[in-house]
Write a structure and sequence with these properties.
Blueprint (H helix, E strand, L loop, with lengths): L2 E12 L2 E12 L3 E5 L6 H8 L7 E6 L2 E2 L7 H6 L1 E4 L11 H11 L5 H14 L15 H13 L5 E5 L7 H16 L3 E5 L3 H7 L2 E6 L2 E7 H6 L4 H10 L1
Parallel strand pairs: 3-8, 3-9, 6-7, 7-8
Antiparallel strand pairs: 1-2, 1-4, 4-5, 9-10
The structure holds adenosine-5'-diphosphate (ADP) and magnesium ion (MG).
Length: 243
């Protein structure tokens, strides 16, 4: 089992607000981990620290066995290996679906356009948008836009994908198609950390689920165990509200 990402005693504050408290976390290759917890518990901040969109105050972030030092290491290089999908898709409105997907590989990775197009089309086929290459985002449903965003993140060939509430902004009838796409990725062996309120998805797809409350990891375990037999009272209270 190869370790992909490990966090040790990670702390992060915004001013006086201590948002992440002594977080320890390990994700191995091909693991799918769901991160659940109430709004404000620090889930997004944790993901952002893993992608170095936020810089921890102290503690360690270790990527493939190498401790990343924000002052010394090239964070752009690390970020390229960590794909991220947000609640809001942020597609370029004046670019077609395919152009959105090939933009970063060409601009950032300097991939030849012909190759980027080939790979971009493959990814769009994979997320079920093989008939939408030349369409502009405004013509897509929210679920389709989010699947473009997933293809766009995958186009950088990340080693791990972070999802921050990828279905929270979607109409209920569009949630399923995005979850199905994520499930397919998980089955293919992608390493994933998913912040979600979709407890059914967490239970079915995630190997592990982590419950966060007030900046701390309260409980973690194989998803079945955490959902069916939570040990901590706070986890029980949370689950009784969301299940
Ligand atoms: P979650 O994703 O679990 O809802 P967040 O990580 O977004 O939680 O936020 C955790 C806490 O940190 C919240 O109280 C939020 O208001 C605060 N916070 C998040 N980002 C910032 C920021 N850039 N500046 C100040 N406070 C922030
Ligand atoms: Mg959040």
């Amino acid at each position: 089992m190869k370790e992909m990402i490990r966090v040790e005693k990670l702390n992060k504050s915004f001013g006086d607000l201590h948002v992440l408290k002594d977080i320890d976390l390990t994700v191995n290759e091909s693991d799918v981990m769901c991160l659940v917890g109430a709004s404000g518990s620090g889930k997004s901040t944790l993901l952002r620290c893993l992608n170095f969109l936020e810089i921890k105050d102290n503690g360690k972030v270790i990527f493939e066995g190498k401790q990343i030092e924000p002052k010394k290491d090239n964070l752009n290089e690390v970020r390229q290996q960590v794909g991220m999908v947000f609640q809001h898709f942020n597609l370029f409105p004046h670019k077609t679906v395919l152009e959105n997907v090939i933009e970063a590989p060409i601009m950032v990775k300097k991939i030849e356009k012909k190759q980027a197009i080939e790979e971009g089309k493959e990814l769009l086929d994979k997320v079920g948008l093989g008939d939408k290459y030349d369409v502009y985002p405004a013509k897509l449903s929210g679920g389709q836009k989010q699947r473009v965003a997933i293809a766009r993140a995958l186009a950088m060939k990340p080693k791990i994908m972070l999802f921050d509430e990828p279905t929270s902004a979607l109409d209920p009838e569009l949630v399923g198609e995005v979850l199905e796409t994520m499930k397919k990725l998980a089955k293919e062996g992608m390493t994933m950390i998913v912040v979600t309120h979709e407890m059914g998805f967490a239970k079915e797809v995630a190997d592990y689920t982590v419950y966060m409350h007030d900046g701390r990891i309260v409980e973690r375990g194989p998803s079945n165990e955490l959902f069916d037999n939570p040990k901590e009272q706070r986890t029980k209270d949370f689950l009784s509200k969301v299940l």
